[in-house]
Design goal:
The chain is an alpha+beta fold. Helices cover 18% and strands 40% of the residues. It is globular, with a radius of gyration of 24 Å.
Length: 238
């Protein structure tokens, strides 16, 4: 019995340190697809490298940030449409959407629905059409997953869904590219991120524990089991 327990403990610790596999997915979706339960609104947020928007109907605060070009959410109160702040038609080169902050530190999502489009470059024979972009999905409790070479689609609509036992805490949009008829690719910007909605999740302590946490828990069980056996042995000898 003791040997079996030690083997199970060692196997559990090895599994815990082997890393966490994430399985989020992204798909282009039809125009008729319904919005999810929480919708991100403008909230009179204005412009800047960091802006905070508000959801309806629950009133969660959601942070948008960019390390490059500034973002602009305008001054309305409708469904948020975030663009660049450099004037009409301007875009942004990267954007991170974070569901968690001091106002809602445990907020997450099982799925996020949005519209994203890119800026075409040049004109005429030197024109490049927005073609691909990359995404990082962040998870509650730590960890992330890259979803690369996503194609821009005519209706701009996508759905990112978390895998089993995962909760999404944020998304990062970056590395938009445009391609010409000769299949030459250049960098471009995103035109806008809009109509973001998500299926909200409020985990008590986050998602699945990190590998190191599992290892500590399993090791703790082993120490507790050994202590209990020593106490029983002393009691019998007495």
């Amino acid at each position: 019995m003791r040997t079996s327990f030690k083997f199970a403990l060692a196997a559990g610790v090895a599994l815990a340190f082997s890393g966490t596999a994430f399985a989020a997915s992204i798909v282009a979706i039809p125009n008729a697809t319904a919005d999810l339960n929480e919708k991100i609104h403008n909230n009179n947020s204005g412009a800047g490298n960091a802006i905070t928007l508000k959801t309806m109907p629950s009133g969660y605060f959601v942070d948008y940030s960019s390390t490059g070009l500034q973002l602009d959410a305008g001054n309305g109160m409708g469904f948020a449409q975030v663009t660049g702040s450099s004037g009409p038609g301007s875009g942004f080169d990267n954007l991170t959407l974070n569901l968690q902050n001091v106002n809602n530190p445990t907020l997450g999502a099982s799925a996020i629905h949005f519209k994203i489009d890119g800026l075409d470059v040049g004109n005429g024979r030197n024109s490049y059409s927005a073609s691909k972009w990359d995404l990082i999905v962040y998870f509650v409790g730590g960890g992330s997953q890259s979803l690369s070479n996503n194609l821009f689609v005519p209706n701009d609509k996508f759905l990112v869904t978390a895998g089993m036992n995962e909760v999404i805490s944020g998304l990062k949009f970056f590395n938009a590219r445009a391609t010409n008829d000769a299949n030459v690719t250049v960098d471009t910007d995103f035109r806008s991120l809009k109509q973001v909605s998500f299926a909200s999740v409020l985990p008590m302590t986050g998602a699945v524990p990190e590998p190191a946490s599992w290892a500590m828990m399993l090791a703790g069980f082993g120490v507790a089991g050994s202590a209990a056996r020593r106490r029983r042995r002393k009691f019998v000898l007495a």
